[in-house]
């Protein structure tokens, strides 16, 4: 893709849309198998697709939530990480292994994912973090992990993620990689519009609440 894609009119008049990008020599065979349900696709958007070129830039990891424009919403047509298949999935029971942790500890985040249709398929489980207290500006939402899982019809699976200083740390004003005491919101889901949220605290000392 070398230019902007605005596909809202295509989506409006279509039952489904498949983006094949540059599928190369065997792309036709792969597309045909997906269309005729010989293969259940499970791809996700690596970018956000805007409703209009006036929305640009429209990336998800901004430093604050976007406000709506006078004549249109600020939300894209389809967000980063979005994707569908012939299967649907339900998320529940987002849990943390501990409520508070120190910089030398590890946190385990897990969520239960259920296949809700009678067809096997792949799901991309996405983990996002929001740093609620930081010494520098950070994106209000950051992708910090993902896992592709395969579920049989109506199967369920608990998907864990390990969080440590690599995921929670930042480069401060001195360009030093540090883990600051504070609070994080952990979110897990299949796309940005359907995330389960839970608060976690990374704390080596008492910090003020702002």
Overall tally of structural domains: 2
Shape verdict = globular
Helix content bin: under 10%
- Please provide the ordered H/E string of secondary-structure elements: HHEEEEEEHEEEE
| Overall pLDDT score | 86
Q: Name the assembly state.
A: single chain
Strand order in the sheet with the most strands: 2-10-9-4-5
CATH class of the largest domain: Mainly Beta
Query: What is the number of strand segments?
Result: 10
Radius of gyration: 19 Å
* Tally of individual helices: 3
Describe the secondary structure blueprint for this structure:
Blueprint: H1 8-12, H2 27-35, E1 89-96, E2 100-101, E3 107-115, E4 121-131, E5 142-151, E6 156-163, H3 165-168, E7 170-171, E8 177-178, E9 182-189, E10 195-202
Parallel strand pairs: 2-10
Antiparallel strand pairs: 1-3, 3-6, 4-5, 4-9, 7-8, 9-10
Give a brief rundown of this model.
With 210 residues, the chain is mainly beta. The chain has helices at 8-12, 27-35, 165-168, and strands at residues 89-96, 100-101, 107-115, 121-131, 142-151, 156-163, 170-171, 177-178, 182-189, 195-202.
């Amino acid at each position: 893709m070398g230019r902007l894609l605005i596909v809202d009119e295509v989506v409006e008049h279509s039952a489904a849309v498949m983006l094949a990008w540059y599928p190369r020599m065997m792309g036709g065979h792969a597309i045909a198998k997906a269309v005729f349900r010989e293969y259940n696709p499970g791809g996700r958007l690596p970018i956000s697709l805007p409703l209009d070129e006036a929305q640009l830039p429209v990336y998800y990891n901004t430093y604050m939530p976007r406000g709506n424009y006078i004549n249109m919403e600020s939300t894209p047509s389809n967000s980063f990480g979005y994707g569908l298949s012939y299967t649907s999935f339900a998320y529940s029971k987002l849990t943390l292994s501990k409520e508070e942790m120190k910089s030398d500890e590890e946190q385990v985040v897990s969520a239960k994912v259920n296949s809700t249709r009678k067809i096997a398929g792949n799901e991309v489980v996405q983990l996002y973090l929001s740093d609620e207290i930081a010494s520098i500006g950070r994106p209000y939402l950051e992708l910090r992990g993902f896992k592709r899982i395969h579920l049989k019809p109506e199967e369920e699976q608990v998907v864990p993620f390990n969080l440590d200083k690599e995921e929670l740390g930042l480069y401060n004003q001195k360009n030093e990689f540090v883990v600051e005491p504070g609070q994080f919101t952990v979110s897990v889901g299949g796309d940005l519009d359907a995330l389960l949220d839970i608060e976690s605290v990374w704390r080596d000392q008492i910090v003020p609440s702002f």
